[in-house]
Design brief:
There is one protein chain. The chain is α/β, with parallel strands linked by helices. The chain has one domain: 3-Layer(aba) Sandwich (Rossmann fold). The protein is built from twelve helices and eight strands. It has an eight-stranded mixed β-sheet with strand order 3-4-2-5-1-6-7-8, sandwiched between helices.
Length: about 270
């Protein structure tokens, strides 16, 4: 059950896009690392049964004794579920393929859309003294993604710079609107971040123009470039900020983190 006396209140951001391969997990890991580097205490919740965020932050499959599945469906103490990462100030609740059955199991629970919301507001969260929680959603508009949106204050949407990129946003926007109407009226869009941008490619420039023309200030100023260092970092179980701190990818995620911090400051004012 949520604790009404809970004092701390971390900012909760769901990173979501039902389309796969848009840089969702990459953005979660590297934005989390950039926020942690700035001094914030950050928790990543891996809500994707593929568990890529867990692998990308060095949590081996055989070390995932307790996972997001246990956070949602079992009474496992929080301090047994949260794991440290190689990054200072950055921890994770990992995921395994077991989470793929959660949608079916959640259907019979009358509070099925609020399980993550309640889990993140339990009294034990106080001990973590978190500033930000990032939820890496699965690449689908499933009940897991709905749980993330009900739990979150905002949704950050990675948008790949490719043809038809904007068309895929319509269903996601409808889902956000439905969650606002039924379960979380204060849910807002944190922003849309353009990923895998190739400055030499006319298509990337056109996608950015279309996004800014249609979505205006919702689109972050920061663009995440297509960068080999960003692609290589997960194979070393590191964020790009640790793998190559001076790369264009690392610099871009630091810039994105600054924008996210500024938005949070304005929202709190």
């Amino acid at each position: 059950m949520p604790d009404p006396q809970r004092q701390t209140s971390p900012r909760i951001i769901a990173v979501a896009n039902q389309k796969g391969g848009v840089g969702k997990t990459t953005t979660t890991i590297n934005l989390g690392a950039a926020l942690a580097e700035s001094g914030m205490r950050v928790l990543i919740i891996d809500l994707d049964p593929q568990g890529n965020a867990s692998t990308g932050l060095g949590v081996e499959a055989d070390a995932r004794d307790y996972t997001t599945y246990d956070l949602l469906l079992d009474e496992v103490p929080l301090d047994q579920i949260v794991q440290a990462t190689p990054h200072e100030n950055l921890s994770i609740i990992p995921a395994t393929v077991d989470l793929s059955s959660a949608d079916i199991e959640l259907m019979s629970n009358e509070k099925r859309s609020f399980l993550l919301h309640d889990a993140l507001r339990q009294h034990a969260m106080n001990a973590l003294t978190l500033d930000v929680i990032l939820i890496d959603c699965p690449p689908s508009l499933s009940l897991l993604t709905v749980n993330a949106m009900v739990a979150a204050h905002s949704v950050l949407i990675p948008l790949q710079s490719e043809f038809f990129a904007l068309e895929g946003l319509s269903q996601l926007m409808l889902t956000i609107r439905e969650v606002r109407q039924t379960a979380n009226p204060s849910l807002r869009i944190e922003g849309i971040v353009l990923t895998m941008v190739d400055a030499r490619n006319n298509l990337s420039a056109q996608v950015e123009k279309d996004a800014r023309d249609n979505l205006g200030d919702l689109v972050f100023q920061t663009r995440i470039p297509r960068n080999v260092r960003v692609s290589e970092a997960p194979s070393y179980a590191l964020s790009v900020l640790s793998y190559d701190p001076n790369s264009k990818g690392a610099q871009a995620y630091r810039k994105l983190a600054r924008e996210v911090i500024q938005k949070g400051t304005r929202a709190a004012a």
